[in-house]
Amino acid sequence: MARRIGMMTIGSAFIFFLILIGLQEKVFAGELTEKVKDTTDKIIAIVSNQEMKQPDKAAERKRLIRQAIDERFDWEEMARRTLARHWTGRNDTEKKEFIFLFGKLLERTYLDKVEGYSGEKVNYEGETIDGDYGTVKVGIMTTQEKSIAVLYRLKKKGPDWFVYDISIEGVSLINNYRTQFNSIITKSSFQDLMKRLRTNVEEG
């Protein structure tokens, strides 16, 4: 295991965010789809703003994109599922820091790749709801006319829905990081994982 925390080992590094910034070619009308589309529209507005494309606006652009994503992603739920059994026993301070570092890891790994967007289109193909859980099925059509299957997983909290996992071509973001983190903790310790995450964020 390398010292640095790795990316998901699937396709292009920025696929994760293509589902957020793609152009809607076909939209399935549904409650959860509209939630996802709302986030998409906000990010499209940011990356399409000519003023925000200026070099001196880079930090502000990144902040606004992260803010839009924060409104729809449940970082605590994602962090809890990623640590799995290792979440139990962590104190509040450790949990809070891990949530922060995990969010920064995803930001550093994927958010910067937004600049690589090159006209990919998104088809919203359907959704399912089962109690407080739901999914939104998405198909990304690349510029090479290849369709990439993406599945949002959402959980209802109060009156709203939040993303807690994304699967791309059958590979779960959460399961991918869970495997990496469990390996580090099992072979070393939770403290070692946190040290690596801090280093990753600092180097970013």
Overview features:
204 residues; globular; alpha+beta; Nuclear Transport Factor 2, Chain: A; 22% strand
Total separate domains: 1
Order of helices and strands: HEHHHHEEEEEHH
Please compute the radius of gyration using only Cα atoms: 17 Å
By CATH, the architecture is named Roll
Strand content: 15-25%
First and last CA, distance: 20 Å
Task: Identify the CATH class.
Answer: Alpha Beta
Helical content (DSSP H or I, runs of 4+): 40-55%
Strands side by side in the biggest sheet: 1-2-3-4-5-6
**What's the main sheet like?**
6 strands, mixed
- The whole-number mean of residue pLDDT values reads 82
Contiguous uncertain segments of 5+ residues: 7-15
The CATH superfamily name is Tgt2/MlaC
Which structural class do the helices and strands define? alpha+beta
| Total helical segments | 7
Number of strands: 6
CATH fold type: Nuclear Transport Factor 2, Chain: A
Oligomer state of the chains in this structure:
single chain
Query: Shape from CA axes?
Result: globular
Précis, in short:
The protein has a single domain (about 15-200), classed as Tgt2/MlaC (Nuclear Transport Factor 2, Chain: A, Roll), CATH 3.10.450.710. About 45% of the residues lie in helices and about 20% in strands. The protein is built from seven helices and six strands, in the order αβααααβββββαα.
How would you sum up this structure, described in words?
There is one protein chain. The protein is α+β, with helices and mostly antiparallel strands and 204 residues long. The chain has a single domain, classed as Tgt2/MlaC (Nuclear Transport Factor 2, Chain: A, Roll). It is 47% helix and 22% strand. It has helices spanning 15-21, 31-48, 58-70, 75-83, 92-110, 173-187, 190-203; strands spanning 23-26, 121-130, 133-141, 147-157, 160-168, 171-172. The chain has a six-stranded mixed beta sheet with strand order 1-2-3-4-5-6. Strand 5 and strand 6 (171-172) form a beta hairpin. 26% of the residues are buried. The model is unreliable at 7-15 (pLDDT under 50).
